[in-house]
Every structure is written in structure tokens, then in C-alpha cells.
Amino acid sequence: MGHVTADVSLNDRVSCTVLLVKKGGRAEAGDPTRSRLEALTLSLTGLEIEMASNSVLYRCSLISFQYTGAATVIVGRRTVAISGNGFRACTSIRLSRNCCSCSYPNPNDTAFVVADDEKYGNKQIISLTPRLYDYILSNVREPEILRQLREETASMRGSQMQVSPDQAQLLAMLVQILGAKRCIELGVYTGYSSLAVALVLPDSACLVACERDAKSLEVAKKYYELAGVSHKVDVKHGMAADVLNSLILNGESCSYDFAFVDAEKRMNQEYFELLLQLVRVDGVIVVDNVLWHGKVADPLINDAKTASIRSFNKNIMEDPRVSISMVCI
Ligand SMILES: C[S@@+](CC[C@H](N)C(=O)[O-])C[C@H]1O[C@@H](n2cnc3c(N)ncnc32)[C@H](O)[C@@H]1O
């Protein structure tokens, strides 16, 4: 039985839009889960649920539903029974049990809940709806060359792995704030995040860009050339841990300002230990995807990757050698 993630909201006419994304990844064309979901018509005690458009379908993975045979769900403040193929429990629904108000004025509007539970300090909790995410993206200054790379990568296998424009902008900004001159990236893929960083580095600076897959690395190298940043990027084709060990053996400990970790998630702890040697005091190490599509917070999900990311997060939380900040981006 496949897992899906979904976001349910009510529009003015009290019909529902269900945004479905396969849990742990995107529901890509041809994906059997997606076909099954697209074929699905749910009835919520008289309310028809319409499937969202494909573009929306790709966007929302914030709120987690679990696929189940049949179930009762609470949408906003309504309790509705789902017959047939149903979905059970999601983050917003769990919150809605504890919240004093839930607002879903329109499927595209910013869905928010106000948690009256004192442990949340009565904060308004905003979930990232398609409309809000569109707004964020419309406020990203994406260089033309990055847009071209993103569009070329879109048709490639694994394109969902690429960091998003807002993430890349944050990485580039961190590098600028730090005044970084020596950077490392683990997991280059076709080069989007590394190019974003290389573009803001001064000419004398250097980014060690490490990737095990030769084919995607070729695309990255093409774009470093096109962007005129090749001289700043030291491409390492190989396994990330091997590359880091060789940098240490080469006497480069404490010489890096910034590192971005976006390779094999189960190796994060090992990468982190090696990077702690390579990155200088007051340097920055960014580790991607520590929320793992929300799975780390779900005690029912215990696959090896999720468990390893959860354990890494716990270790970092308790590690007095570093200051930390978990960012939901
Ligand atoms: C999430 S993608 C990186 C996305 C990239 N940062 C971007 O913005 O496009 C992860 C990449 O890490 C690479 N990778 C996975 N395990 C690796 C390893 N052990 N050593 C080096 N690269 C690895 C994969 O081949 C894949 O291209």
C-alpha cells in the first residue's frame, strides 16, 4: 500500500481540493500511485473531491496523509467520512484537534491554524500553500543562467533532487554574508546549487564540487563554462567521503569557510565529522533535507533513511561543538 502526502482544504462552495504527492517523492507521470490517485473520486459524505491540477500536484508535500482503506477525517472543523480509498490524519488535522480556529477560505489561499495549545505560544502556524509558494518564488532573484539550468534539468531523471530557487538564493546569501572564499559542496547533480554559490564567489575563491555521477556532472560542467565560473570550481568526480578524506590528507583542515551537504543522506554523520575538520571555526555547514519531507516527525515511519536522518538530527541537537538552526525550507 503506497503512502501519499496530501493537503485538504475547503473552498467557498464547500467542495474540496485534494493535493496529492507520493510520500517521499513526487508523483511523476507514469507513476502507478499517481495514476491510481488521478483515477480516484472520493466522496466526503456528499461532498465531491476534485483532484488538483498537475502543477499543484507537484507542489504540496507539507502536510502528511496516510493512505488507508477507509477513514474519518476532520477538514477544518468538519468531521467527514471518506469512503472507499481514503486518507487518514494529516499534520493540519492533528493540529486542528488542538486549535481554536482553522481557516481554509480558498484552496489557494494561505492555510493557517492558530494553535491555542500553550506549548505553541498561541502562534499562528502557516502552511506553505501553492499560492504562498508561488509568491515566495516570485520574490526570488534567479539569475538567467540558473533558470536555463533548471529548465534543462527539468526533463532529466532525478530533477526533483535539484534545490529550489529560493533554497539556492539562501545558500548564495549565506556564502556572501560569510565572505566565504573556500567552499565545499557534496552532491552536485546537474549543478544548480553549486552554480548559485559559484556565481557569488569572488574570482580568487574556490568551490570543491563533489559528485559520484559522471553524467549529471557533465551538465554541471557545461553550465560552469557557460556562466564563466569554471575557474572557481574544482570538480571532484567521486564518492563524497573519499573526497573529504583526501582533502584532509592534503593538509586542508580548517581551511574552508562553507560547506553544503546534499549527497547520500545516510552518510550525513560521517560527512559532518569530516567537514568539522575541514571547515574553520565560525564557518558554516548546511545540511539539506533534515526534515525529509516531514517523515522525521512521524513515529510510524522508520525506514533506514528516515531513521538515519532522525538520528543525525538528534546527534547534532546534542553536539556542543556547533551552534545549530533547523530551517524549514
Ligand atoms: C539531491 S542531489 C543534489 C542536488 C544538487 N545539490 C542540486 O542543487 O542540483 C544528490 C546528488 O548526490 C549524489 N550523491 C549521492 N551519494 C553520493 C556520494 N556518496 N558521493 C558523491 N555524490 C553522491 C547523487 O548522485 C546526486 O546527484
TrEMBL record:
<keyword id="KW-0489">Methyltransferase</keyword>
<comment type="similarity">
    <text>Belongs to the class I-like SAM-binding methyltransferase superfamily. Cation-dependent O-methyltransferase family.</text>
</comment>
<keyword id="KW-0949">S-adenosyl-L-methionine</keyword>
<dbReference type="Pfam" id="PF01596">
    <property type="entry name" value="Methyltransf_3"/>
</dbReference>
<dbReference type="GO" id="GO:0008757">
    <property type="term" value="F:S-adenosylmethionine-dependent methyltransferase activity"/>
</dbReference>
<dbReference type="InterPro" id="IPR050362">
    <property type="entry name" value="Cation-dep_OMT"/>
</dbReference>
<protein>
    <submittedName>
        <fullName>CATECHOL O-METHYLTRANSFERASE DOMAIN-CONTAINING PROTEIN 1</fullName>
    </submittedName>
</protein>
<dbReference type="GO" id="GO:0032259">
    <property type="term" value="P:methylation"/>
</dbReference>
<dbReference type="GO" id="GO:0008171">
    <property type="term" value="F:O-methyltransferase activity"/>
</dbReference>
<dbReference type="InterPro" id="IPR002935">
    <property type="entry name" value="SAM_O-MeTrfase"/>
</dbReference>
<comment type="function">
    <text>Methylates caffeoyl-CoA to feruloyl-CoA and 5-hydroxyferuloyl-CoA to sinapoyl-CoA. Plays a role in the synthesis of feruloylated polysaccharides. Involved in the reinforcement of the plant cell wall. Also involved in the responding to wounding or pathogen challenge by the increased formation of cell wall-bound ferulic acid polymers.</text>
</comment>
<keyword id="KW-0808">Transferase</keyword>
<dbReference type="InterPro" id="IPR029063">
    <property type="entry name" value="SAM-dependent_MTases_sf"/>
</dbReference>
